[in-house]
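User: Is it possible to get a 3D structure for a protein together with its bound compound? The compound here is iron/sulfur cluster. I've pasted both below.
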Amino acid sequence: MDKITLILSDIIWVMFLTFLFLFFIFSLIEKEFKALKRAGIFFIISVFIFLIKIKTGFLTSDILTIVIFSLFMFLSFAYKRKSLPIKIIFSKERFDERDIVFSRSDYKPGTREYEEYYKMHPEKEEFDKRLRELPDVCEGGSLFEKLHSPICISEFQLLERLLPCVDGKVSDKKIKVQPEKITDKIKGLAKYLGADLVGICKLDERYFYSHVGRGPEKWGKEIKLKHKYGIVFAVQMKYEMVSNAPFTPTVIETGKRYLECAFIGIVIANYIRNLGYSARAHIAGSNYQAILPPLAYLAGLGELGRIGILVTEDYGPRVRLGLVTTDMSLVPDKPKNFGVQDFCNFCKKCALNCPSGAIPAGDKKIIRGVEKWQMEPEKCYHLWRKMGTDCAICVYSCPYSKENNFFHLLIRKYSKLSGFSRRICFIGDDLFYGKRPRKKIYPEWMKT
Ligand code: SF4
Ligand code: SF4
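Assistant: Yes, that's possible. Here is the predicted structure of the complex:
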């Protein structure tokens, strides 16, 4: 009996040490030096205790090790806590694209848009005037870099040139397709073109803007939902770039991923129109008609987090989204809940790290029928204009944003198990990465 206890206890210790060693190695690869240092210290102390245990049996009790491990496993696996699905109640209320802060910052005094808008919303005029006095993102600001900021401008200039490609003529020759087969084909095509995640949802009018506020379409025109299905996809942003938030690598990465989303969306929409069905790509650069995060949730790509954007299972909020809407019959996916709503309840790391105070640290509210944390885009965008980048500190701070490698996949899987496992992951994240994770290590090509 004593021998079995001893062997079991040794196995637990070896597993624990292997875990710490793996963490150390992956932190080194990711250049997460704070985590590397702390994992190293933990590893050395643990090895020391283990060696003393083997030699003398002093400091640890085998029975105690087994009891603690068993309790840990029991709480992780058996103590299931609901992953808290997002509450959605009936609502017909829609959001007006003319109200979003990006649209408002474009209204020039003396134009029809300006006069009409501030007649409807005089309370917003003063704030927007102050906003327009600041340089545009990447054109100035405290973090402007004269060699790097123009890269982002170049990306967005290309995006603007793609705007006329989002819609077009539908072929007269309609090809008959089976919903199951064409759904699989389109998902495969999206992945082939570069999407990391793809799902299908049935469209819900409430997630479409009520009126056009930006882009080439007529300002103020009512947006009517003419399609039934949405193909929602996500491309991951490179961790190396996002971990430099709020400096220029992150905004360059944003531009690159928006371009990729535009490429994927435009090709898929074109393809569907060539098969004889109506389709439209919704791309960045002022041409969305829909609010993408709730559609991405419905398509099973992730959950809505405190951060105010989609949190995916594999990449956290470190993604950019794209959408194609169509009248072609497709097979919708189901929303997935993997514990983000529960995690966000106690985590609050994005709120704590947000320099503008745009992310709420309090409870969720019902907004247009969806129970969610409502961030304040005005505060966020004002800071973007002051800094000259798109900040993204919240994205990098989110524990779900970590690199998508073997080690973090293991942690992600573990965090899905129960409320207890999510709390353990949160404590571990705080312990090793700190409450305010920061790092500035530019990729080689940006150092020269
Ligand atoms: S991007 Fe920056 S300012 Fe905006 S919500 Fe995130 S942390 Fe806050
Ligand atoms: S940082 Fe924490 S609270 Fe914010 S979205 Fe990520 S998990 Fe949720």
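The chain has two domains: 2-83+399-433, 97-397. Residues 354-356, 358-359, 375, 380, 383, 391-394 surround iron/sulfur cluster (ligand 1) (CB under 6 Å).
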